[in-house]
Design goal:
- This protein has about 80 residues and is mainly α.
- The chain has one domain (about 15-80).
- Helix content is about 60%, strand content about 5%.
- The chain has a two-stranded antiparallel ribbon.
- Helix 2 (about 20-40) packs antiparallel against helix 3.
- The longest helix has 21 residues, at about 20-40.
- It is elongated, with a radius of gyration of 17 Å.
- The two termini are about 35 Å apart.
- The mean pLDDT is about 80.
- This is Cysteine-rich protein.
- Keywords: Signal.
């Protein structure tokens, strides 16, 4: 389903406080996800198929840790309110 862009832009323009870049935040999150998929592939794993358990491969745990740091950095960088 494709949403018309004008109502979204009109709503965003009417906000008194603008977020530091919701579209940039989405792009950053996408880059983080692409990175974790690459990390899993380099370890011979497929992202989304490893069950979180004590027996999870160390590489999967490391990739997930990097993903968490990346996503936190995206949120800190692009979702801070700008008055």
């Amino acid at each position: 389903m494709r949403l018309p862009i004008f109502p979204i832009l009109a709503t965003a323009a009417s906000l008194s406080t603008v977020l530091g870049g919701p579209l940039a935040y989405c792009a950053c999150q996408t880059a983080c996800n692409a990175g974790v998929v690459t990390c899993y592939a380099a370890a011979g794993l497929t992202f989304g198929t490893v069950i979180a358990a004590p027996a999870a491969p160390a590489a999967a745990i490391a990739c997930n840790s990097v993903l968490g740091v990346c996503m936190a950095a995206c949120a800190a960088s692009f979702l801070a309110p700008i008055p």
